[in-house]
Amino acid sequence: MIKIRTSFTLLFSTVILFLLIILVIFLRLLDNRKEFGSMQFQRQSSFALSDYLIDRNNELTRLCTNTIYSKNEIWKEAYQKFLNYDDPSAQFLKSDFRVDSLQAKGFTSQEIQLINNALLLSNKAIQIEKKALALPTQSTALALLQQKEYLDAKNNANALLLSLEKRIDSRTTKTWNESKEEGFTLFYTLLLLLLFVLLFSTASYYLIRLRLKRQERIDKKFKESVVELQSTKDNLVESDHRFTLATQGTGILIWQYDLISKQLNWFPKNSKLLDFPSEKLTPSIASIQEQIHKGDLDLFNQQFKNCIENGSAISIDVRCYTATKELKWYNFRSASIKKNTHIVGTFSDINEQMKQEEKVINAILETEDKERSRIARDIHDSLQQTMSTSLLNLEKVRVSDEISDKELMNKFTVGYNYLKKAIQESRTLAHNLMPKVIHQNGISPAIQALISALEGSTATQIIFYDNLNEERLKLSVEMTLYRIVQESINNVIKYSEAEKCTIQLLKYSDLLVLTIEDNGVGFDLSTTKNTFGLNSLKTRAEAIGAYLQISSVKNKGTEIVLELAL
């Protein structure tokens, strides 16, 4: 829509243009009127000149004849005076017979020719009159004036002057008609243009007035919208301020992923993500994937892919490296999306929460280990001692010959052997409940002792590698690793039908990695991922802040990987 300023500019320009046209037409009309007046003046001057020449010729003839008849010198002097243009009324005609003067008065070349011819004939008649006045007798003078040559000169001169008047009258009449027609045309054109400008200005004023009223309504609504927008802006600023305070207080960041531009934006703006300044991280999902621990990356990528493809929600706890290379726990969450172009979710630091959970689990496991230790001590100090004393007494009876009944002796031998076996199993149980080798020598010797104890009792070859070199870890970590290895070996022996099982415990500068791998029958993780045994392994790993991943394919074996940040 054309703006008000533009409307006024167009209107003003149009009016100015038409006024300029009107001015040009008005000036042309003035010129027309000037030409008309000049033409009238020329006509009047032309008629006056022609009439004067005719009257002069007639007057000269009258004076000449009076002089001849009266022989009076007064008439002759009057004739001579009139002949020399001494009459004051004819003084202006002395120079009017020049060609340039006649052209300046508006005579055409034909009209000038007629005037010159008339003057020649007049001069010829004057010469005859002068001869007549010079004759001594009246009769000869009058006879000379009666000659055809004189009469033809006088008549032809007057005829030429009358013809000149008719030509001038015809020309001026035609010019007058043309000038009048042009004048009326210019006048009516000027009148129509003035009327058009008036109507155009009135209509434009009316339309612009309507436009101004509408603009006033629009401006009023605009001002109301501005006030409303300012109020909304203030509310948004206040809401954003509350949102910023809330996120700063809770440590929660909001993320938004654009499915079209593939950009990942974080809110509030300029927040530190993983202790990185905002300008250090690019607005892409890759910037986060680069910081996620490799053990959590596959699961994160799978959930993110499912969210994009299926609209499912994201809810995953991942470990991420901060700007200081510290490994912390974070919760990555989003709602399910349907027919949307954005994914919106939260990113929160749950490291302290995970530490508290680890403390709780550690307390549980510590309590469990203490209880195991107590039970092991009770078995060793009480039950084993009692059974050992019973075994010694039975041994004395067995070596004596007091039992002669063979059947009774067989029963005695069976009981003796079961008691001996119970003592051995109680020792094994007490050792398993709390292996002293962990307290005394550490995790590596404990695992090696466990493997040695199983030699000969299983067809699976168990190989152990480590690089700790007698270096000790925290007792809680060593106990957890031992329980995981112990449970895993039991599962290999019971279910895997493996020929070989390899255990590796490797320590790096910032990471401890435990790998247990076999070449057995494997199993389907989708049907066994929630079993007690597997959950127990993961719970123990999480208790010390470690990440545990189990991979298995049917007929291709199983691999358990535990990673613990140091």
Automatic annotation (TrEMBL):
All residue ranges annotated as the PAS fold-3 domain in the record: 266-340
Domain Signal transduction histidine kinase subgroup 3 dimerisation and phosphoacceptor: 371-436
Keyword Kinase belongs to the record: yes
Keywords: ATP-binding, Kinase, Membrane, Nucleotide-binding, Phosphoprotein, Transferase, Transmembrane, Transmembrane helix, Two-component regulatory system
Record has Cell division as a keyword: no
Any one GO cellular component localisation term in the record: membrane
InterPro entries registered for this protein in UniProt: HATPase_C_sf, HATPase_dom, PAS-like_dom_sf, PAS_fold_3, Sensor_HK_TwoCompSys, Sig_transdc_His_kin_sub3_dim/P
CDD domains xrefs: HATPase_UhpB-NarQ-NarX-like
Record-listed E.C. numbers: 2.7.13.3
Domain (Histidine kinase/HSP90-like ATPase): residue spans on this chain: 478-564
TM ranges: 7-30, 186-208
Any GO molecular function: ATP binding
Catalytic activity line of the entry: ATP + protein L-histidine = ADP + protein N-phospho-L-histidine
Domain of life assignment: Bacteria
The protein's name in its UniProt record: histidine kinase
Lineage, uppermost ranks: Bacteria, Pseudomonadati, Bacteroidota, Cytophagia, Cytophagales
